Prior knowledge:
mainly alpha, Arc Repressor Mutant, subunit A, three-stranded antiparallel sheet, two-stranded antiparallel sheet, 9% strand, globular
Amino acid sequence: xxxxxxxxxxxxxxxxxxxxxxxxxxxxxxMTTSEASEVGLTPVQAQSLLFVxxxxxxxxxxxRLAEALGVTHVTAIGVIDGLVGRGLIRKTTSPDxxxxxxxxxxxxxxxxxxxxxxxxxxxxxxxxxxxxxELEMLERGLGALIWSLRxxxxxxxxxxxxxxxxxxxNAAPGTPEPHRCRLIQRFLNEHEVQLACPDFTAQxxxxxxx
Length: 210
């Protein structure tokens, strides 16, 4: 049975919630399309620029972008090539692995990211009508769903370092790079710590499947 079947939804709360999320995804698509078009971009192009802007520089690769967007590597290359052609992104080879292509914003790309400050704000405004307790319950429920989907391998979550099981705060105090990531065995400066990491794993979340 499909969640699109109204009779089936009558007997399944999970199906009703699933249908609600599908409807919300369509609304989010409509809102982000409108917001991105204001600066001459598609939602995927806007997401790609913001991914490069807010991801740790040494992790902002084509492969990681493909994971974040939920598309194939070939599709991600096509998106990036379009942004390169518009002078918004440039490619560079990783100094750690020459097989990896890293992505950097150009000055024009950085300027356009500043104009994307309202991207996603329509959804934020829609959520603001909820009572604080309702919003808290929704956040908790959706958070559990997101991590369930992540464990299933259909969603990639990137967040800043603090709160991650791999993060060591002030592992080398008094140095330019005082913090450390145990996963990648790398010391980090404060700015890098504040940028998103695709390998983020929240404290209390099992890492057995990693």
